[in-house]
């Protein structure tokens, strides 16, 4: 991969050729010199954009009005330049360069890659859908997606079949809008679920679904490119000017996965009750309390809490003792525990089945997968709980009323329950400076439960009802 | 399947004869070389053999037709499977750097096994087949052959009798051989309509609008259904099987039919009544579950394929022209033009064909006769091979 700083300067007149469409697949890396300042600014701003894409994807229904409005605003911010009138060329250049810089930061691990691809795809999907129909076709052609549109006669003769196979198609739609002929190998998701008309090896894709095809292509290309970038990364990382920035970028926003257990055995079982009050994030505290009270947790809760405990340093033996002693106080006798539940604890530690050493869940995972239902205690209280109840609970935990209303910036972004634990422990043992303004004394009195969560909006209702509490959840 | 001639104990004597005189090596080699367009295509192909006493050997590969012949005559495999074309010669896979030995291409294959229909056939079960349930294979071939050709645009399909209880399909197009795992699994799922195992009662659920593929498949099923299911399988005959059918219907229709069937014993009339009631219900509700009769037909007749067989690029499948050790039958190609008259019980067994070979030839006529029998099975294959050769 070519790297800025080692290439010739760009000639002015070919500007327009380089960026002949507002969207691109990021196939070719940038070939110009760029200042370190611009390098850093572009990267950080794109990262903010992607982070917004992620948060909006979690808190709003994609393509809802709210989603569209907010994302639009963020994209405008990204392209906005303090000087008057940023040109189209400059917008596209920023888009291009910032994407490639972030590739450097996000190519290294599977998790980073997955995150980056997901957000870039969501961003691309939004921008592509926003395009005028003609520009969509333009884009396809310019990128060698040689998908022909079906002629009017063929559309007419196949009309009934098209309507019977594709979602959201009517007679008028078929007539008015384009239908694309795509080799079936490029439309596997639609083929697999039989949601498309197939003839002679081609899938007949209506206009509104062509974005799915394009996205598949986008994902494949980006995935391959990231793998290649990872291979040339050592050369880049040896550049001292860039190394600190790149590692800051990838850590600040995605963070560790706590899969490698540090401090195994440093925590004793007797400490857990006390720790839960001091250094557990709200979700884990909640789970711990439910476990102590009911002497039981369902599967979702066992997984979320059990893996968290593994992440803070509990060994397998300790975990087995912990769960057994609690369950035995309830309806489960020791025998049954050993038969039914011990297996799943061992499984969590990678000692059973396909021996995957499961990683503790990140906040995103807790929020997005497996929402709790009746009788469950897992999930994220900031997302899954009723706001009033949540407010009450926080007050119970001695977060002062002003604390629930204030936004406090601890100088890092919280993405993982185990991160919360680690930072909290650091704080309590006095090993860390806090960058922004925080009242230290208030902090040691209250629980660190007042540390902010990244922007989450529970629901429209929450927005309307909560007012103050709402701002608690916003990043800025 | 009773074959009075065939005795598995004779295999050690018959197989060497079969491999020396009858196995169509030159057509086989020509098929698998695909015109020599890709370098080392035949040489990098994996074969697996099951030898006497169930000894299984994988990663067999051969450099020439001659070597293939010699090895087969030497090892005398009881079973032969064909696998994928790899990046290197399979027989040397241990010498290759770990991670670089990979399956690159293979025909897209389908395996239809009669045992997968045990919940809907009454005449036989497990490995048994009879002329009554063989219709299921006919239906499967017609439906899948049409779909693979018309929907997916494939041209070179080889249908083969497995030798005991099913059929295989080898899709040999260049595009098919290059399909990824994801693509193969997508094709197989597109072709699957029967969902659910032991626990599921209603295995087919149709909703509006009905996809053209399903409509095409239904028209095939409808051609055979009455004769096959109502008459031969008698699914509306005994109480037990009637109950199974009724279990697929909503309460109100079920009640009505239970009463009606107390009087009416004629299965055709019973089926007609069922269809009428479903039709009635359809026009009275606005949406949902209007196709009970079609669902029943599909559940009893639609092809059941094993997605796992089709998915894997490196999956090994029984070779055409190999012998099935349990029945002695040769895995012969099926000519779709003669599909309606194909009879699995008429397929030559190894003992039959060897016996014919051994018979002293009195005159020309008999000679031709024997040759005809030998060629009969190969004719179909040659036709297929000729088709395959056209493009390669």
UniProtKB/TrEMBL annotation, chain A:
This is DNA primase large subunit. Residues 441-460 have a biased composition (Polar residues). Residues 274-421 form the DNA primase large subunit C-terminal domain. The keyword Iron applies. Regulatory subunit of the DNA primase complex and component of the DNA polymerase alpha complex (also known as the alpha DNA polymerase-primase complex) which play an essential role in the initiation of DNA synthesis. The primase subunit of the polymerase alpha complex initiates DNA synthesis by oligomerising short RNA primers on both leading and lagging strands. One of its GO terms (molecular function) is 4 iron, 4 sulfur cluster binding. Binds 1 [4Fe-4S] cluster. It comes from the Eukaryota. Its cofactor is [4Fe-4S] cluster. Residues 432-476 are annotated as: Disordered. GO terms for biological process: DNA replication initiation; DNA replication, synthesis of primer. [4Fe-4S] cluster binds at residues 283, 363, 380. Keywords: 4Fe-4S, DNA replication, DNA-binding, Iron, Iron-sulfur, Metal-binding, Primosome. Heterodimer of a catalytic subunit PRIM1 and a regulatory subunit PRIM2, also known as the DNA primase complex. Interacts via (C-terminus) with PRIM1. Component of the alpha DNA polymerase complex (also known as the alpha DNA polymerase-primase complex) consisting of four subunits: the catalytic subunit POLA1, the regulatory subunit POLA2, and the primase complex subunits PRIM1 and PRIM2 respectively. Within the complex, POLA1 directly interacts with PRIM2. CDD domains: PriL_PriS_Eukaryotic. It comes from Cyprinus carpio carpio. InterPro entries: DNA_primase_C, DNA_primase_lsu_euk, DNA_primase_lsu_euk/arc. The keyword Lipid metabolism does not apply.
Automatic annotation (TrEMBL), chain B:
GO terms for biological process: DNA replication initiation; DNA replication, synthesis of primer. Residues 370-392 have a biased composition (Basic and acidic residues). Gene3D superfamilies: DNA primase, PRIM domain (3.90.920.10). Residues 358-392 are annotated as: Disordered. It is an enzyme of class 2 (transferase). GO terms for molecular function: DNA-directed RNA polymerase activity; metal ion binding. It catalyses: ssDNA + n NTP = ssDNA/pppN(pN)n-1 hybrid + (n-1) diphosphate. The keyword Nucleotidyltransferase applies. Its EC number is 2.7.7.-. The keyword Nucleotide-binding does not apply. It comes from the Eukaryota. One of its GO terms (cellular component) is alpha DNA polymerase:primase complex. SUPFAM superfamilies: Prim-pol domain. Pfam families: DNA_primase_S. Belongs to the eukaryotic-type primase small subunit family. This is DNA primase.
């Amino acid at each position: 991969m070519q790297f800025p700083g080692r290439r010739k300067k760009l000639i002015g007149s070919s500007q327009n050729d380089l960026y002949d469409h507002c969207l691109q697949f990021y196939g070719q890396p940038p070939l110009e010199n760029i200042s370190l300042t611009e390098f850093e600014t572009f990267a950080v701003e794109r990262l903010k954009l992607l982070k917004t894409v992620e948060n909006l994807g979690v808190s709003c229904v994609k393509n809802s009005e709210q989603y569209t409005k907010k994302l639009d605003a963020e994209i405008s911010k990204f392209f906005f330049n303090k000087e008057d009138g940023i040109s189209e060329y400059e917008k596209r250049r920023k888009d291009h360069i910032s994407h490639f810089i972030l590739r450097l930061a996000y190519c290294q691990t599977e998790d980073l890659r997955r995150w980056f691809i997901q957000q870039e795809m969501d961003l691309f999907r939004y921008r592509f859908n926003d395009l005028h129909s003609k520009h969509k076709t333009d884009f396809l052609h310019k990128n060698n997606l040689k998908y022909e549109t079906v002629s009017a006669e063929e559309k007419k003769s196949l009309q009934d079949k098209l309507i019977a196979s594709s979602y959201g198609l009517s007679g008028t739609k078929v007539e008015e809008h384009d239908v694309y002929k795509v080799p079936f190998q490029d439309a596997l998701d639609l083929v697999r679920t039989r949601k498309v008309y197939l003839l002679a090896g081609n899938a007949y894709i209506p206009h509104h679904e062509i974005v799915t095809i394009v996205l598949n292509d986008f994902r494949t290309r980006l995935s391959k490119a990231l793998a290649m970038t990872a291979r040339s990364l050592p050369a880049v990382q040896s550049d001292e000017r860039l190394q600190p920035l790149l590692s800051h970028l990838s850590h600040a926003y995605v963070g560790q996965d706590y899969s490698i257990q540090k401090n195994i055995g440093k925590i004793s079982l007797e400490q857990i009750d006390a720790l839960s009050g001091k250094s557990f994030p709200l979700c884990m505290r909640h789970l711990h309390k439910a476990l102590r009270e009911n002497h039981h947790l369902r599967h979702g809760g066992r997984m979320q809490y059990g893996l968290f405990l593994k992440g803070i340093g509990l060994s397998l033996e300790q975990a087995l003792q912990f769960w057994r002693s609690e369950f035995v106080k309830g309806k489960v006798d020791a025998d049954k525990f050993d038969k039914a539940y011990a297996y799943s604890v061992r499984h969590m530690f990678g000692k059973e089945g396909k021996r995957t050493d499961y990683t503790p869940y990140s906040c995103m995972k807790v929020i997005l997968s497996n929402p709790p239902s009746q009788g469950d205690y897992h999930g994220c209280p900031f997302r899954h709980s009723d706001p009033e109840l949540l407010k009450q609970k926080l007050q119970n935990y001695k977060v002062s009323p002003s604390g629930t209303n204030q936004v406090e910036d601890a100088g890092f972004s919280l993405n993982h329950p185990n991160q919360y634990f680690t930072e909290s422990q650091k704080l309590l043992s006095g090993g860390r400076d806090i960058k922004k303004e925080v009242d230290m004394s208030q902090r040691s009195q209250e629980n660190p439960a007042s540390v902010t969560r990244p922007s989450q909006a529970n629901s429209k209702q929450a927005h309307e009802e909560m007012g103050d509490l709402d701002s608690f959840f916003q990043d800025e | 399947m009773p074959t009075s001639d065939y005795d598995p104990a004779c295999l050690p004597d018959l197989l060497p004869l079969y491999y020396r005189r009858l196995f169509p090596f030159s057509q086989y080699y020509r098929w698998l070389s695909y015109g020599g367009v890709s370098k080392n295509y035949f040489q990098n192909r994996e074969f697996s053999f099951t030898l006497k006493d169930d000894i299984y050997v994988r990663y067999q590969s051969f450099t020439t037709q001659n070597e293939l012949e010699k090895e087969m005559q030497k090892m005398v495999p009881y079973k032969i499977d064909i696998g994928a074309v790899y990046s290197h010669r399979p027989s040397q896979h241990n010498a290759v750097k770990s991670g670089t030995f990979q399956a690159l291409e293979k025909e897209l294959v389908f395996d239809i096994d009669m045992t997968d229909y045990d919940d809907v056939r009454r005449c036989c079960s497990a490995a048994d087949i009879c002329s009554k349930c063989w219709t299921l294979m006919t239906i499967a071939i017609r439906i899948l052959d049409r779909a693979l050709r018309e929907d997916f645009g494939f041209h070179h399909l080889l249908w083969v009798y497995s030798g005991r209880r099913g059929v295989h399909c080898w899709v040999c197009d260049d595009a098919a051989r290059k399909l990824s795992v994801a693509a193969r699994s997508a094709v197989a799922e597109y072709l699957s309509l029967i969902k659910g195992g032991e626990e599921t009662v209603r295995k087919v659920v149709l909703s509006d609008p009905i996809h053209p593929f399903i409509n095409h498949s239904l028209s095939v099923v409808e051609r055979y259904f009455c004769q096959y299911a109502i008459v031969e399988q008698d699914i509306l005959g005994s109480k037990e099987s009637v109950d199974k059918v009724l279990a697929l219907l909503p309460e109100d229709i079920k009640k009505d039919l239970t009463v009606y069937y107390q009087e009416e014993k004629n299965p055709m009339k019973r089926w007609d009544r069922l269809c009428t009631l479903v039709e009635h219900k359809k026009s009275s509700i606005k949406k949902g579950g209007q196709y009970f009769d079609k669902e029943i037909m599909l559940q009893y007749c639609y092809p059941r394929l094993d997605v796992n067989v089709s998915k894997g690029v490196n999956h090994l499948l029984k070779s055409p022209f190999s012998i099935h050790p349990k029945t002695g039958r040769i895995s012969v190609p099926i000519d779709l033009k003669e599909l309606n008259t194909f009879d699995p019980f008429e397929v030559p067994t190894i003992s039959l064909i060897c016996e014919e070979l051994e018979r002293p030839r009195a005159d020309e006529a008999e000679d031709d006769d024997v040759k005809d029998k030998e060629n009969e099975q190969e004719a179909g294959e040659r036709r297929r091979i000729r088709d395959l050769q056209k493009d390669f």
